Amino acid sequence: MKVLVDTSAIMAMLHHDDKNHLSARKVWEQLLNQDAILICTNYILLETCALLQNRVGLVAVKAFEDSIVPYLNIEWVDESLHQAGVAALLIANRRHLSLVDCISFETVRRLGLDAVFAFDQHFVEQGFTCLS
């Protein structure tokens, strides 16, 4: 199984006060036990590091880098993917939809991924199978 790992899932795993923390830890363990191929874009990495540093602190960034990143296959966003994400964002014309989300949607489509590990309803709206 090939799965995109979203910022919302990572935040839930690392932030003990997150309402989805226990569910996120359970799904993560299941994915690791199934030897799932875990995909993450460099934009998701950037977004996650910024949010963790701001909301939790650098200790959480270190935990992310040490305990989660080693399991991720990084999909580096190139100019084509970036432009597709920007176009989708501008067409959607929705304030609470992010560029990172739009690039993630396009990544799932381009790579033909099976599911998304996320707690972000935007993925459900796009018709993706969410593990949460």
**Shape descriptor:** globular
Percentage of residues assigned to helices: 55-70%
Task: Give the integer mean of the pLDDT values.
Answer: 96
Strands, count: 5
Low-confidence stretches: none
**Terminal residue distance:** 15 Å
Strand order of the largest sheet: 3-2-1-4-5
Q: What would you call the structural class?
A: alpha/beta
Count of helical stretches: 7
Order of helices and strands: EHHEHHEHHEHE
- CA-atom Rg in angstroms: 14 Å
Proportion of beta-strand residues: 5-15%
The major β-sheet equals: 5 strands, parallel
Q: Can you characterise this structure?
A:
This protein has 7 helices and 5 strands. It has a 5-stranded parallel beta sheet. It is globular. It has helices at 7-14, 21-33, 42-55, 58-67, 79-92, 99-111, 121-125, and strands at 2-5, 37-41, 72-75, 115-117, 130-131.
What's this, in brief?
The protein is an alpha/beta fold and 132 residues long. The protein is 58% helix and 14% strand. The radius of gyration is 14 Å and the shape is globular.
Offer a few descriptive terms.
5-stranded parallel beta sheet, 5 strands, 58% helix, 14% strand
What topology does this entry show?
Blueprint (H helix, E strand, L loop, with lengths): L1 E4 L1 H8 L6 H13 L3 E5 H14 L2 H10 L4 E4 L3 H14 L6 H13 L3 E3 L3 H5 L4 E2 L1
Parallel strand pairs: 1-2, 1-4, 2-3, 4-5
